[in-house]
Amino acid sequence: MGWFARHRDRWGAAPRHLVELLAGRPAVRPAEDVDLDSLLGLVAESLGYGYAFTGDGAVLELSAPRRTITVRLAGLRLEAARRPREDWPVLVAEHLSGAAGRDPDLPDVCDLAEVRPLLRTRVVRAETLEDPSRVIGRHIAADLVEILTVSGRAVRPAEAFCWPVTPGEALDLAGRNVLDDEKLTTERLDLEGVPAWRLAGSAAGAVVHLRRVEDYLLVSPDGVMVVLPHPGEMIVHPVDGLSVMRAIERMWLLARREYRSGEGGLSPHVYWWNHGRLTRIQADLVVQNGQRRLVVAPPPEFARLLADLAQDR
Question: Taking the model in full, what pTM does it have?
Answer without folding.
Answer: 0.84
